[in-house]
Prior knowledge:
Elements: E1 7-12, H1 28-43, E2 47-52, H2 70-93, E3 99-103, E4 112-113, H3 116-124, E5 128-132, H4 142-153, E6 158-162, E7 167-168, E8 180-181, E9 183-184, H5 186-191, H6 199-207, E10 212-216, H7 222-227, E11 234-236
Helix pairs in contact: 1-2, 4-6
Amino acid sequence: MDDADKRVLLKLSGEAFADPEIGYGISPDMVKRVAGEISDAQSSGYEIGIVVGGGNIFRGVSAAAEGMDPANADYMGMLATVINALALRDAIELNGVQCRVQSAITMQQVAEPYIRLRAMAHLDKGRSVIFAAGSGNPFFTTDTAAALRAVEIGASVMLKASTVDGIYTSDPAIDPDATLIDEIDYMDFISQQLRVMDTTAVTMCMDHQLPIVVFNLMTPGNIGRAIAGERIGTLVH
C-alpha cells in the first residue's frame, strides 16, 4: 500500500446509525457493522478520518425545525452528530483499535476540540479520528465539512457513504429510467445539478483535486471495499 493512498476521509450520513426499517434513532446492529468494517480497514494500515451526519436524530430541514431559527436548527443538528460520533467511537474501540472524537464545537468533557495537527498526529499513530459537529458553523452541510476535513488532513480521497449505489442520472426512486453513472467530472456534476452532494463540497474537492467516491453503505462490506480503493459506486474527479 502506497503511503499517499492510505489516508482517507469517510463521510457517514445519519442513515449509517439508524434502524433501516424506521429510518431514525441509533441501531446497535448498524453501528456494530459499520464500526467492524472501519476497524478491519484500520487494522490493515489505513488511516481513516470520519465525518458523521446527524439526520437520524435531528435534521434542520425536518418538520421538527419548522418555524425555528435556521442557525439554531443547524446547531442542534451539529450536536446530534456528536451523539453519533460517541456511539461510533465506542463501537470501534470495542474491536480493539483506537479512535478519537474531535468536535468543532468545544465540549471538553466528551470530545477533544478540533485541532488539525492533533488530528493528523492521531492518524499517524494508527488511530481513526471522528470529526463531529460539522465545521462548527451554521449553513454548511456535513458534506462540506467532510470536504474541508479531507483537504486539511491530506486525505487521498473522500468516500461518501450513501443509501444508493452511487450517482444516478436522476432520482431512481422517482424515475425508473435513471441509470447509474460510473464516473463523472466535477464540472459535469455541478452543471447537471445532481443532488447527492451539495455543490460547495464538490467545488472544494475540485479546487484541491480530491476525488470523491459515492457508494452504498447498506451493502455489507462496501465500506471496507471503498477504503481499500476498489471501484464501487461513482467516481467524481
